[in-house]
Amino acid sequence: MNQAIRSAWVVAVGMFALVLGSLTYVQFFQAQELNENDWNSRQLYQDFGRQRGAILVDGRAIAESVPSEDQFNFQRVYNEPELYAHLTGYYSLSLGSTQLEAEESDILSGTSSSLFYDRVVRLFSGVDSEGASVELTIDPEIQKLASDLIPDGQRGSIVVMEPGTGNILAMVSKPTYDPNLLSGHDTAVISENAAVLSEQPGLSIYTNPATESLVSPGSVFKLIDAAAALESGRYDAQSEIPNPPALEFPGIDYTLPNFVTGGCASRTTADLEFALEQSCNTPFAQIALDLGEEAIQEQAAKFGFGEKLAIPTRVIASTFPSDLTEPELAQSAVGQFDTKVTPLQMAMVASAIANDGQQMKPQLVKAIRAADLELIESPQPEVLHQSTSQATADQLTDWMVNVVENGTATGARIPGVEVAGKTGTAEVTDSGDNAWFTGFAPADDPQVAVSIVMENVDIPTGQQLTSPSAKRLIEAVLNR
To answer: Is 219 a residue of the active site?
Structure first.
């Protein structure tokens, strides 16, 4: 009898231990996997029933959760949606989330470990848990102006930064869209809206073109060639470089033409100042052939090429190709062939030159605040690279000022302010080019860096949409 009781007791204890162990395993080891399971409708309803924190610009919500009269309790709403769509992304029942809604989801939903104390206080006080707010570095007036400077129907991007901090003051791209079309609670309507948006030429609802679209930079890449030339010690302000109308390559039927729109043809040789001023192709191609592929790659890497970033949204790596033939290296050095950049990358290049050669990490988030507005986190400026020496940065600045004063970027001139800039034209299609401007001002005390690209435009249209737009953006920042 006692043996039977003992056996039953052992079995009961064993079963209890098994159940307890299973519960412990599920709660501590499988919790995240179960929460993220697409079939977990309970978690889905819980997430969409939570009051999500706001995304703020200058204290105003550009994304917020408002009460809804359905089973989810709250509806995500986007204010000035098309102006900020590529930054906020969307929080969707059927499509998931993108951009800041995805990258800052733990903060916005209130589940981040940094909000643990806040959750405990609210639990014991009986107050419903809320997500924290994400305050952006964006200046709403500069953002609006940048958007207005890209005509509707034109594919393009503009990035405006503070060189000394990396803070992004504006980041816009067109075409754009309304995230409210994707954030409702009717999955059939969401699918229908997503299908319509997918048919819009040049638009992806999944990516931010300013940080995730790789485009040919054309002649703005010559800033990197010039930096590599100076940093090598083999070139200086007095160096004279052959400036033929075309660069020929023995044994193949290919020539690299010089830039024909400017004044390159007026000189058979060129120093670096003139070559930048008139955006001459053949001198920079010859510099790359002289220094070699590796030297150009290394200088590009010092400006951030080949490096992925989180700002906190994803920034894909800009690229300079490898294993190049001489003609391919010559093309790549003038921003053609397989040289590809994000619009943000060229703003980073200009910012590094403006900041004595020191490149700061771009930053989109100014502060994280709890529901009671208490400051939780405020990202500090962070150095990414020493892209060039200060002497090289100073020399490049002088040459870039000359580009605006006497060269291809005269449309960016501002009376009383020295503007440093560089234009670019990348030949990409039979019907149009990529038109670029990148630069900063004031040259002696840089407060703002600008990168502009307009895709698939003719040369006159590109000239109208780049340098003059940079002028207006710089003036707006300096007059704040």
So the answer is: yes
